[in-house]
Design goal:
Blueprint lengths: L1 H19 L30 E7 L3 E3 L4 E10 L4 E4 L4 E4 L6 E4 L4 E5 L6 E5 L11 E5 L11 E2 L13 E2 L9 E9 L4 E2 L3 E2 L3 E4 L6 E8 L6 E4 L2 E10 L6 E4 L3 E5 L2 E4 L12 E3 L16 E5 L2 E4 L4 H6 L7 E3 L4 E5 L2 E3 L5 E3 L7 H6 E4 L2 E3 L5 E3 L6 H7 L7 E3 L3 H4 E3 L7 E4 L10
Parallel strand pairs: 1-3, 2-4, 3-5, 3-6, 4-7, 5-8, 6-9, 7-12, 8-12, 9-15, 12-16, 15-17, 16-18, 17-19, 18-20, 18-21, 19-22, 20-23, 21-24, 22-25, 23-26, 24-27, 25-28, 26-29, 27-30, 28-31, 30-32
Antiparallel strand pairs: 10-11, 13-14, 33-34
């Protein structure tokens, strides 16, 4: 009877573990980042460009894997044109001319790589650094909460027409195309006059647009900037950017699933960059709050800070919060891991701690690990009210102090890290 009980317990443990791997943080029976990603892009030689892209692309165009393309200056896809990119194609952003690619409102990009043959956007410098080139802009006609139906991107791009940089409208279900199995490396250039570019900017993009398996690495600006629109993000990776990994603003309606932000205090910007920054406006006078406020619904995310000495890095001020929530926003995090931050979450000081606010900001089935505090209001050292609220057993939030080796399967593997929770080991032995 004892042996039967032991066998039954082992069966239940294994069965429970198989199901448990679908609970918190990024999920998958296999490490979905193991084949199409590149965590050491500075060691890859993509060759020299053989074709140049410049100016406006005004007719349907297909980029071929056999060529390597150079983005020379500000490149715009305009006039309801579709730019199609073959799997395995390499597009290089020019350092001297601040190369960038903008998919204008009404046009589309079909960049559908393969798991075994991703599409790559990268730098043309011999020694690649953050911010070597501009980045990618996708502009659509989904709503924002700015006054009027139309706004313009103002990052120092040089369009031939205002309409090429305009975005926003009344079509939440619009379709700007597909980004799938795409890597964006060393983008996010900073200009003195216009500030930071981002690796990928989605402005007024509608929910029929597909953004899946997109990795942004070593961006000097944000990795993903989402400005209004109704967007779905799945299996996205922000790897060691200098500013915010994911920034949502101006009435964004976003569902983000099975995605990760990987930070390190030795690369992050000194301005206190976050994994996620959620706001409804920068300047209240420029938005119409009768329109939708920013609403981010996140599930199965992993927000992790990779540090060699976390306690010391916190003490000297290199580690900030993972998530900053500004006023007039809705945020829901579910089954998400936040590991190694100072603290995990900060609420803006203008957010009043009452039932109305707490109904807008939800944390359920979370795994807060090795953070110097969990959820605070900015400028307040006492967070008892928040701890009592989110610590209620009905939310099923878990608090831990496990180190990285105990928490993740193989976080520091330089080529193929695995950021799933270590409980996956039982079913991940064949990776």
């Amino acid at each position: 009877m004892k042996n039967f009980t032991q066998i039954l317990c082992l069966f239940l443990l294994a069965f429970g573990s198989i199901n448990a791997q679908q609970e918190k943080g990024i999920v998958g029976y296999n490490n979905w980042m193991s084949s199409w990603t590149e965590f050491q892009p500075n060691k890859v030689d993509y060759g020299e460009p053989t074709q140049i892209l410049s100016g406006d692309i005004t007719e349907d165009t297909k980029l071929l894997k056999k060529n390597t393309y150079l983005l020379l200056g500000s490149v715009f896809v305009t006039d309801s044109t579709t730019l199609t990119i073959e799997p395995g194609t390499v597009i290089i952003g020019d350092f001297k001319t601040n190369g960038s690619l903008t998919i204008s409102n009404g046009s589309k990009i079909i960049a559908e790589g393969l798991e075994t043959d991703p599409i790559i956007f990268t730098s043309n410098r011999g020694v690649k650094k953050q911010g070597d080139w501009g980045g990618i802009f996708i502009l659509g006609d989904a709503p924002t909460n700015k006054f009027g139906n139309e706004s313009a991107i103002d990052f120092g791009l040089k369009p031939s027409s205002y309409k090429n940089v305009s975005y926003g409208g009344d079509c939440p279900d619009s379709n700007s195309g597909i980004l799938k199995y795409v890597r964006i490396e060393y983008a996010g250039k900073r200009t003195k006059e216009y500030g930071y570019f981002s690796g990928l900017t989605l402005a007024g993009v509608g929910h029929q647009t597909v953004i899946e398996n997109v990795m942004v690495s070593y961006s000097y600006g944000n990795s993903f900037s989402v400005i209004g629109g109704e967007v779905k993000l799945d299996k996205t990776i922000s790897n060691r950017c200098s500013r915010n990994d994911y920034e949502f603003n101006f009435g964004t309606q976003c569902k983000i699933t099975n995605s990760i932000a990987i930070r390190t205090p030795y690369i992050s910007g000194s301005e206190g960059s976050k994994c996620m920054y959620v706001a409804s406006y920068d300047n209240l006078d420029k938005v119409d709050l009768t329109k939708k406020r920013t609403d981010v619904q996140a599930e199965n995310m992993t927000l992790v800070n990779v540090s060699n000495n976390l306690a010391n890095d916190i003490e000297i001020g290199l580690v900030k919060e993972a998530l900053y929530i500004a006023p007039e926003t809705y945020v829901s995090l579910n089954k998400t891991v936040i590991s190694g931050f100072n603290p995990a979450v900060i609420l803006d000081e203008e957010i009043k701690i009452n039932n109305k606010s707490l109904d807008r900001i939800k944390f359920r089935e979370m795994y807060f690990n090795n953070c110097n505090g969990n959820i605070f209001t900015k400028g307040h050292s006492n967070n008892d009210d928040l701890e009592n609220w989110y610590g209620n057993s009905i939310f099923q939030n878990v608090y831990s102090k496990g180190d990285d080796k105990e928490t993740f399967i193989d976080l520091k593997n330089p080529k193929r890290p695995d950021f799933r929770l270590r409980i996956n080991k039982i079913i991940a032995s064949n990776d």
